[in-house]
Write a structure and sequence with these properties.
It comes from Pseudoalteromonas prydzensis. This is DUF4398 domain-containing protein. InterPro entries: TPR-like_helical_dom_sf (IPR011990). Keywords: Signal. This protein has 135 residues and is mainly α. It has one domain: Tetratricopeptide repeat domain (Serine Threonine Protein Phosphatase 5, Tetratricopeptide repeat). Helix content is 64%, strand content 9%. The chain contains 6 helices and 3 strands. Strands 1-2-3 form a 3-stranded antiparallel sheet. The radius of gyration is 13 Å and the shape is globular. The termini are far apart. The N terminus is likely disordered.
């Protein structure tokens, strides 16, 4: 069931991530990891975060995104891939925080994410947050 939901919100592939538009009725973009094998803890946390944002469970999404970020710090993947995935996880957490009206923390996550990796999806989320806050 959960895997089916992930597949339904996945739009396209970017390295190992996909964008899922319309987070909680907004035009923020969420990233999920598509995998052909059984999901590992990083992928499970990462995707669960996006699903909880989509389901408007913002507090739970924030906690799960934070877990995904911690798991990525321990990852043995290439530094470039870890940096990019961490940027996406920060962006997802930032969206969750923005949707929960925790604007300062959400904006902080989005700025940090944009500094970590050059991504049009992360840039989109930061621009959207700044527009929402009239910055």
């Amino acid at each position: 069931m959960k895997l089916t939901l992930i597949k339904t919100i996945a739009l396209g592939s970017l390295l190992t991530c996909s964008a899922a538009a319309m987070a909680g009725g907004s035009d923020y973009k969420l990233m999920v990891i598509e995998t052909a094998t059984a999901p590992q803890p990083v992928e499970q946390s990462f995707n669960s975060c996006a699903l909880n944002v989509k389901s408007k469970n913002y507090e739970q999404a924030e906690a799960i995104c934070t877990k995904a970020i911690a798991l990525l710090k321990e990852s043995r993947e290439s530094k470039l891939k870890v940096r990019e995935l961490t940027s996406y996880a920060l962006s997802n957490r930032g969206v969750s925080r923005m949707m929960a009206k925790n604007d300062a923390a959400g904006l902080s996550d989005l700025y940090e994410a944009s500094k970590m990796a050059d991504s049009t999806m992360v840039s989109h989320n930061l621009t959207r947050a700044k527009e929402y806050l009239s910055l």
